[in-house]
Amino acid sequence: LNPQEQRELQSRMEKKQMKEFMNVYSNLVQNCFNSCINSFETKSLTSREESCVMRCVDKHLKSQTRLGERFQEQNAAMAQAGGLPGR
Amino acid sequence: LNPQEQRELQSRMEKKQMKEFMNVYSNLVQNCFNSCINSFETKSLTSREESCVMRCVDKHLKSQTRLGERFQEQNAAMAQAGGLPGR
Amino acid sequence: LNPQEQRELQSRMEKKQMKEFMNVYSNLVQNCFNSCINSFETKSLTSREESCVMRCVDKHLKSQTRLGERFQEQNAAMAQAGGLPGR
Amino acid sequence: MSFLFGGRPQISSEAKIAQAEAEIDMVSDMFSRLVNSCSKKCLDRDYREPDLNKGESVCLDRCVSKFFEVNVKVSEKMQGEASANAAGGSPFGI
Amino acid sequence: MSFLFGGRPQISSEAKIAQAEAEIDMVSDMFSRLVNSCSKKCLDRDYREPDLNKGESVCLDRCVSKFFEVNVKVSEKMQGEASANAAGGSPFGI
Amino acid sequence: MSFLFGGRPQISSEAKIAQAEAEIDMVSDMFSRLVNSCSKKCLDRDYREPDLNKGESVCLDRCVSKFFEVNVKVSEKMQGEASANAAGGSPFGI
Questions:
Q1: What is the mean pLDDT of chain F?
Q2: pLDDT tens digit sequence for C13-30
């Protein structure tokens, strides 16, 4: 890719990153809602539900960071070993 | 956005709406199929399965209308209160 | 569609096909991983897990081929009968 | 991006292609949903053998039939609602 | 494809439209996730009747409330983390 | 939209960028599937504490390893099938 093409790719990547960030956020909302909210006796979150959501978000963020690190390592190792067999 | 930009946004919104309508439709097909069809002794729908599908579609459409109304209300209330804290 | 338009549609279809092929592949990986890998006592696949994955891929590929054939048949039959009632 | 170029010919080309594309997308989306539903309903989850057994095969065939039937029923129903509400204007008259 | 045409006016038009589009996409994505979650939590799975019963209706209303609240909590939390980490630069300052 | 402009340079630029983009999309799709699968397999669903405990951490690490291995096995298998069927022409020779 020449510099102009790289700039274009770069700008597409930035859009994708924003989209992916929003996706991570929305997944957190949905997953933690699904796991922590199971009663609809009240209109507002109970304090128990709220703290479950907080721990859930924390744990998922830490989990994603860890998974991202391992993924990078494995990806790098695989690239050095010559990529996926088919490439 | 100037008028020309608004027209462009408008036209993209129309495409999105068509896409979303198709998505609502496909979700109905899939959800009601998954919920109502559990036996494959026959090639055609039994009358029991068929009426389950009809009730399922009805209920989901009503549910979506209701959820849409509440969503709009909450969204309006939140916009007035200054939006999501981060905005 | 005139020939130029057909060429454009053709080229978009090719991109879609590549994307869909990748999607079939990724679904296989995810489904067979989810079905066959349930213990994390070890870092590597056990031989039991590995052969489960192999059978799982085989079965899903055969299943998709069969579903594709039936889908085509039904689609053709429906097109002859005048399409989905709404079209 | 049609507004950057203007001119009807391209717009209408683009629109025709977009419509053909939308129909193909619709069919292929339906197929992937069918694959998802029918695999879950019909395949033994333990994968003891690599081949489809008789039961799975028959189940898959019937599953496709029933999925199409549900598709038709839902489509008829939504058209009924649309014409009841709007007295005309089918949601599928793309 | 802006690099093919260059020129700031189009780029900035495109950028403004893209931003408006992104916001609409975000809201509509949230709505479809809410529909998915609240239908699962609130609707009886056996579909014995076509209408929402009292219990389902109340459940749906509260489900929307709670979904919004979770949304706010998660958003606040992620901003807190972001400002703790970076001392500035909110992830939502689109 | 290449047909609107014609000319090889743009087409080939566009194609090269599209290919780079497709590879990145593929990797990021795999990552989000891995996150989905490994979170479900490894995280305690009750969220009693905000930190990963020892068991969850080890499970996540091994989960990534196994997910990659499955990826390689499936890829090898599909190439085997492809070359058996077509005697050449790998599905991954993007």
A1: 81
A2: 888 888 899 999 999 999
Mutual angle of helices C3-36 and F54-86, in 10-degree steps: 130
Residue A3 pLDDT level (bands cut at 50, 70, 90): confident
Which fold would CATH assign to domain D14-87? Helix Hairpins (1.10.287)
Average pLDDT over residues F82-91: 56
Size of interface A-F (CB pairs under 8 A): 100
Q: What letter would DSSP give residue F53?
A: P
Query: How far apart (Å, rounded) are the C-alpha atoms in residues C48 and C37?
Result: 10
Give the residue ranges of DSSP H helices in E1-94.
2-5, 8-42, 54-86
What DSSP letter does each residue of B18-29 carry, written as one string?
HHHHHHHHHHHH
CATH number at residue B47: 1.10.287.810
3-state secondary structure at position F44:
coil
pLDDT tens column, E51-89: 999 999 999 999 999 999 999 999 999 888 877 766 543
Structural domain contains residue C86: no
**Residue A43 domain-assigned (yes or no):** yes
CA distances D30 to B26, D36, D67, Å, are 7, 10, 10
Closest chain B C-alpha to E36 CA, distance in angstroms = 10
Do F43 and A59 contact (CB within 8 A), yes or no?
yes
Type of residue found at C78: M
Surface-to-core class of residue D48, CB atoms within 10 Å of its CB (0-12 exposed, 13-18 middle, 19+ buried): exposed
Residue C42 is assigned to a structural domain of this protein: yes
Q: For E61, name the nearest residue in chain A, comparing CA atoms only.
A: A43
Q: How many CB atoms lie within 10 A of CB B7?
A: 13
| DSSP tag of E53 | P
The amino acid sitting at A60 is H
Instruction: Provide the domain count of chain C.
Output: 1
Cβ atoms of E89 and E82 within 8 Å: the answer is yes
Quick check: do B and C touch, 3+ CB pairs under 8 A?
A: no
Task: Name the closest residue on chain F to residue A56, using Cα atoms.
Answer: F47
Using the structure block, give the residue that is written with the tokens 């053909």: D20
The token pair at D74 is 């839902």
C70–chain F nearest CA distance, Å: 22
Mean of pLDDT values over F51-78: 96
Chain D segment 25-44 residues within 8 A of C by beta carbon are 25, 27-28, 31-32, 34-35, 38-39, 42-43
| Residue B25 counted as domain residue | yes
